[in-house]
Amino acid sequence: MSNLVVQGWQVIGYSVSDAGGETYQHNVLLAREGEHKVLTVRKKFMGEGVVSTEMDV
């Protein structure tokens, strides 16, 4: 997320949801020059670390 903010994206929304009882899914809505993007971050189901995905909306 830090890289996106450095590129000029602004955080305009945030939510957290339960992703199947074991972990939480963090969703961040970002905007830049009329474009919007959702960044989703969650803990890996197996192993250590996180999984992140970006979706243009």
Q: Any overview of this molecule?
A:
The protein is mainly beta and 57 residues long. 9% of the residues lie in helices and 60% in strands. It has one domain (2-56). It has one helix and four strands; from the N terminus they run αββββ. It has a four-stranded antiparallel sheet, with no helix packed on it. Strand 2 (24-32) and strand 3 (35-43) form a beta hairpin. The protein is elongated and about 35 Å long.
The helix fraction, in percent, is: under 10%
Total beta strands: 4
Distance between the termini: 17 Å
Spatial order of strands in the largest sheet: 1-2-3-4
Return residue spans where pLDDT drops below 50 for at least 5 consecutive residues. none
Tally of structural domains: 1
The radius of gyration over CA amounts to 12 Å
The description of the largest β-sheet is: 4 strands, antiparallel
- Helix and strand content put the structural class at mainly beta
